[in-house]
Amino acid sequence: MENIQMVDLKGQYEKIKAHIDNAVIECIASANFINGPHVKSFTRALEAYLDGASVVPCANGTDALQIAMMALDLQPGDEVIVPSFTYVATAEVIGLLRLTPVMVDVDPETFNITADLIEQAITPKTKAVVPVHLFGQCADMDAIMKVARKYNLYVIEDTAQAIGAIYTFPDGKTAKAGTIGDIGCTSFFPSKNLGCYGDGGAIYTKNTALANKINVIANHGQTKKYVHKYIGVNSRLDSIQAAILEIKLSYLDAYTSARQIAAFRYNEMLADVKEIITPTLVPYSTHVYHQYTLKVKNDLRNSLKEHLEAEGIPAMVYYPIPLYKQEAYTSISSISGSLAATEYLCSSVLSLPIHTELTEKQQHRIVNAIKSFYKKI
Ligand SMILES: *Cc1c(COP(=O)(O)O)cnc(C)c1O
């Protein structure tokens, strides 16, 4: 039987192989490994894709978040509001910079942080908030920006899972994920919606002065050769990865459509399975389905996962342990209010395979395996 994977990077590569292979060989032959021409051309292409926001490429999504916070001059002890239901990187860089992560709950319907939950967590020390557009759908940025402006907070969007998602403001205007707050951060980790063949990341901002500072910080704080204005980091996107990303960016919208078609098909196929809840679609954002994440009722998540695995179908739990319960974070973070939704989600979410190569036939197999689980119990 055909092997089903969470993400089929090999299948995706096969379809663009000739193009990619040429670009990689060209990079190697030119020996322009660092800051080669593709780094510039990919950066310009991503800026165009993001409707003119400035882009600074860097080594990975975690660095993107760290550099963003360094550029905003946040000081030790400043509080940064983050969702307690997210990937660790979001809180990690806050801790590294000796800032205080303030963990707030998420809306169990959307998996995202809300303006109300943010407002309740604000103290005189709060300096920034990091909305994470989890699983590929934007948090409600209009409401979040209003709270942030009211309290004079920076907004750093963690858009590692939502590149290409489109947010619609109440007046009908639209913006790409990551271009609404002060800074947007993304990752090109291979399995992300725009993934390279190694590590990569980028920082976006519409503020050109800030973009310059971010660029300097990502390059050893160097304003001119051997002149260092800030303590920076060494965080670069290498030329080979940029060449690959430049090609893959031209397919991003098609990749997004493929994910959406697969997700809508799951929604239909699973509509009559009452024991699971399919992902909510909000009116203010498209969903780029970095993950297709179910909520499994009646405490059966782990048994359903085991059943699927026994049938040769991978399924993953993003994320099994709330951040504030992680040993590294319990003593440095502060908690705002109840984190009941995070607790509930950690014990009930299950992500099904979703990727650009997923076929209807594979989805039938996956859904049949889910249905057979509920027949069996
Ligand atoms: C992947 C991811 C990151 C980190 O990106 P890396 O490139 O792996 O460093 C940060 N935040 C979220 C929400 C992610 O999914």
From TrEMBL:
Q: Which residues carry this modification: N6-(pyridoxal phosphate)lysine?
A: K192
Q: Could you cite one Gene Ontology molecular function of this protein? A: transaminase activity
**Keyword terms of this UniProt record:** Aminotransferase, Pyridoxal phosphate, Transferase
Q: Which GO terms describe its biological process?
A: polysaccharide biosynthetic process
The record's active-site residues are K192 (proton acceptor)
* Keyword Transferase found: yes
Q: Does the keyword Transferase apply?
A: yes
Q: Which residues form the signal peptide?
A: none
Q: Name the family.
A: Belongs to the DegT/DnrJ/EryC1 family.
What PANTHER family does the database record attribute to this sequence? TRANSAMINASE, UDP-2-ACETAMIDO-2-DEOXY-3-OXO-D-GLUCURONATE AMINOTRANSFERASE
Q: What is the protein name given in its UniProt record? A: DegT/DnrJ/EryC1/StrS family aminotransferase
- Origin species: Chitinophaga lutea
